[in-house]
Amino acid sequence: MINVGVISDTHGLLRPEAVTALQGVDSIIHAGDIGSPDIVRELLRIAPLHAIRGNVDTEPWANAFPVTDVVQFGSVLLYVLHDLKTLDLNPHAAGFAAVISGHSHQPGIENREGVLYFNPGSAGPRRFNLPISLGKICIGNDGLLHPELIPLAI
Asked: What is the pTM (predicted TM-score) of this model?
């Protein structure tokens, strides 16, 4: 089994609760709106990191990160982008097991055509009355994905 921490929309704030929730994961995916290179450094202390930049990541440091990414764990392919509305491919036809996004700050788990659509929500500053959360995806030895949303107590 592989345990993947999924975080998004930190906007420069890595809460202690998020650090605690990510302990023990094998890898971390950040789905954009990182907000600060300090977030990257702190996440790398926990586990290997795959990060993309979001619409607020406009400073020169953010150019090191792609706008989208394909992350592979064994035979499982995950497509990562910040804003799901910009998805310009058919994930099922492309062989992706999951599409991971952020941007909306709204956590969600949905399956469409056998593809997991996973948004961990926002782990950074609260926006409106939306929850503060992150997620984990456990990838079984059989390649099946087991997603989980984790509310962060504040």
From this structure: 0.97
